[in-house]
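Reply to dn_fold:

You asked what the input looked like. This is it:
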Amino acid sequence: MSIDEPGDAAPAAMRMTQGSPPPPPDPDAPHVLVVDDDRRLCALIARLLRENGFMVSTAHDAAEARAKLQVITVDLLVLDVMMPGESGLDLTQSLRERGELPILLLTAMDGAEDRIAGLETGADDYLAKPFDPRELLARIRSILRRSVPRAALASGGPGRTLAGVTLRFGPWSFDLGRQELRRDGEIVHLTQGEATLLGVLAAAPNRPISRDALAERAQIRGGDRAVDVQIVRLRRKIEDDPRNPRHIHTLRGAGYALRTDA
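and this is what came back:
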């Protein structure tokens, strides 16, 4: 059974044994803020995450989410798109302008244009309702693996790193291990999706990478158009003139390549 299907019964994958509370949270576990105006769904997601080792806070509209973000530190935001008042897309765009908090959007709309709209606002991933609880957990762990080192506690261990490898291009330097971008020594904030995409390009400098390969390695969903959207966002951060890129080149029929000084 999927989450958000009609009916009052909780999905079997989320059902708890009566009288058995979830285990106490690990203070080092990733902290997720779940924001959804559907209080039943919000409670089900919170229970699922707690049973799988996450710390969880909840909010039921954008205003409450903003208030909680002022007083708590979270590692990821699970955010419903269609909420009364300020929508999930509007909140995502606003938060992205000020920082790089990873965001997973929940949406009842699963069309390609809807997915693209979510990516364009700066979301790291999206998930259409109704969804399988296992897929929600997999998406959250995937985002955290790319963004929060301590998420290894909930995702089964850290991934491969390229510690100490730094690529330079123009005034830029990119630390592949830390996925940290600097311009003339100053850190430039990237979203987790942008950092992952740049990391894929930087791992094979001056070589074309197809859209399919970029989508697979950077875990971009939504096809070629979604890859193009992420490239446009990255160019806006890196290029002095995004319409005439110096660093991230489009190679017709071959994909994209990051040109370095070497």
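Residues 6-19, 148-161 have pLDDT under 50 and may be disordered.
Hope that clears it up.
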